[in-house]
Amino acid sequence: MKNPAPVEHPVHELIRERWSPRAFSRNEISSEDLRSLFEAARWAPSSSNEQPWAFIVATRNDNENFTKALQPLVEFNANWAKNAYVLGFAVAELAFAKNNTPNRNAHYDTGAAMSQLTTEATSRGIFVHQMAGFDPDTAREVFEIPSGWDAIAAFAMGYPGDPASLPQPYRDRETAPRVRKPIGEFVMNGKWGHTADFILK
């Protein structure tokens, strides 16, 4: 199923086609495709080229670790994410490796890596649904994440499935219209709250 964004200004088709389904098929993602997704993440920009990200990943073919990856998810997410082919966690290193001082951009940079992964996935017909609904302490425990690193997002990846396979209320969310704030609400110049002049033209 495709669900393109109803954009108000032209953007690349990969931006329009990216979305976060809950209905996933159980079709296998090849190892070659998975390697390319994480290669895309590898080349994301980061402060001082620190690359403060790591990814914990489990596929359906690895039942033991896939089951472990479900444990930190809140029940609402676990109920649909269990059907994806891949479950994972984006993890950020909170201090610079070079001098152990706090890296205030670690979360931002890890998000950039995840964004590049998602764009590459979209180009291959693979969809990524990122989640805040998980318990970081459980993720730390089950995957032995070391001190100084935090799991900051969970994600499910796979090929799209049939929305009709979802129970309510998931089905309603899957088929609801996609909405976003207009750019005039968040693109500013001069002072906070003043819409940038080029938006108004």
Description:
It is a single chain. With 201 residues, the protein is an alpha+beta fold. It contains eight helices and four strands; from the N terminus they run H-H-E-H-H-E-H-E-H-E-H-H. It has helices at residues 13-17, 31-42, 63-70, 75-81, 106-123, 136-143, 170-175, 197-200; strands at 53-59, 86-93, 127-131, 149-158. Strands 1-2-4-3 form a four-stranded antiparallel beta sheet, with helices on both faces. The longest helix is centred in the middle third of the chain and has 18 residues, at 106-123. It starts with 12 loop residues before the first helix and ends with a helix. The relative contact order is 0.21.
* Helix/strand/pairing category: alpha+beta
Question: What is the name of the CATH architecture?
Answer: 3-Layer(aba) Sandwich
Please bin the fraction of helical residues.
25-40%
What's the CATH H-level superfamily name?
Answer: NADH Oxidase
Q: Briefly note the CATH topology name.
A: NADH Oxidase
Strand order of the largest sheet: 1-2-4-3
Instruction: Give the total of beta strands.
Output: 4
What is the 3D shape?
Answer: globular
Low-confidence stretches: none
State mean pLDDT (0 to 100 scale). 96
Rg estimate, integer Å: 18 Å
The total of helices stands at 8
Strand content: 5-15%
**Main sheet record:** 4 strands, antiparallel
The H/E string reads HHEHHEHEHEHH
What is the rounded distance between the termini? 36 Å
Domains, number: 1
